[in-house]
Amino acid sequence: MKYVMENREPAAVLRYFEQISAIPRGSYNEAGIADFLVAFAQARGLEWHRDQTNNVLIKAPASAGMETHVPLLLQGHTDMVCEKNRDVEHDFLRDPLSLYVEGSFLRARGTTLGADDGIAVAMMLALLDGEIPRHPAYECLFTTAEEVGLDGAHAFDYSRIAARRLINMDSEELGVVTAGCAGGLRSDLTLEYRPEPFAGECLHVQIKGLMGGHSGENINSGRANANKLMGRLLAALERDMELHLARMEGGSKDNAIPRECEAWLAVPDAGAAAELLTGEAARIAQELGADDRRFELICEDCEPQACMMSAGDTRRAVALLVCAANGVLEMSRDVAGLVEYSRSLGVVRSEEGKLTLVFSSRSSIEARLDASVRELDLLAGLCGCVTRHHSRYPGWSYAACSELREAYLAAYRRVTGDDARVNVIHAGLECGVIGSHLPGLDMISVGPTMHNIHSPDEALDLDSVAVFWRVLGDLIPRL
After folding, report:
1. Which member of 79, 139, 188, 474 is catalytic?
2. Which of 18, 30, 83, 146 is an active site residue?
3. Is residue 287 classed exposed, middle or buried when 0-12, 13-18 and 19+ CB atoms within 10 A define those classes?
4. Which of 66, 114, 222, 441 has the most beta carbons within 10 angstroms of its beta carbon?
5. For each successive 10 residues of the chain (479 residues), what is the average pLDDT?
6. CATH number, domain at 21?
7. Which residues span the domain enclosing 302?
């Protein structure tokens, strides 16, 4: 196999990353990567366990002279967000990622890269292979379905873990040590309606070119949500002419800020409707930030759809799109700059007789999540929707004292000469779930630098990978 990163360090880590990038591993499609991990363990005579959800635990004994040291748990998730540009042909169930290097960054052509969290998988494989010769006993936990609600972490049997200190490698900025995270939940609001025969002219409306991103990490970046913008456009159109929504599709992942959205509309005059929408889009474009400068609205005549909503049901749908709170809802009163409570309308999808809106709510305060449930239930009741709340996961509270955190900070300082920063994030991490099963676990979350995760613009900073590996090389022999 020819590697695109052949002459870069750390060679073993990057080689393993390229190998796993050839294995499709979207959420709920982790059987292939689990097979790879089990084969890896078997070939080296390492103890392993694979459960029904394709979580894999691999254990390696301590190196000579470190047998009495406390075991170290390392953890990352095998699944990745599968996003691609609409003009890219790629089957995430079958096709390998097409990797390329651009300067000091690794990218994938037209798709997400899966460095979130494939780089953790590659790091653990290199560690298990003895690339850092002096080490305590390792317990490497490869979890599944993290991107769709931390399902693998919820399902794992933690009685198999002996370690009481954890390095999670699902963070995206070198020089930052994460020491707490938000909890969250998903909420599906489904509007059921009686389809009517399509009548009028059909207009296909597309929003494209937005930046998107992670709905936790990037929620305070000011990036526009394509689903919410479509709601605004439809509200402006519905004010001036009769409107029937036939179909709407926006976003594909509930934990990503949607970059694109499209709707098929029944209107009395497609040309006039396109003119109104174009005018509203021009006003929107003036409001958007630099990240969304490629925003584009496309309006095209199209063949009539099979059916449409009534005008009343369309109004209810538009009300849902416009009135559901989205974005940063509260900032922390205790930690400067930290988002405390947010919500993102990640997905809108149509089925026959149904329109479903999928929200992701996040907060480190459980009562905020309870309030989000009640608020969405009330809105759904007013609009005649059915709600389903699911995939709830706990947050991770900051610990004032952490020996592992201090050890990592010291190692980072020795390697780089700089001080790493400790923070608490608004995104969800599996640390919250793992910590709830292993009370008193000393935890940090760290990793190399990545940009634009959960989007086809995802990029892994290869220079930061090399530095991060050197930090681990300094830290692990001292634990």
Report:
1. 79
2. 146
3. exposed
4. 114
5. 85 97 97 98 98 98 97 98 90 96 96 97 98 98 92 96 97 95 94 96 97 90 97 97 97 91 98 97 96 97 95 97 96 86 97 96 92 97 96 88 97 98 91 94 98 92 98 98
6. 3.40.630.10
7. 184-393
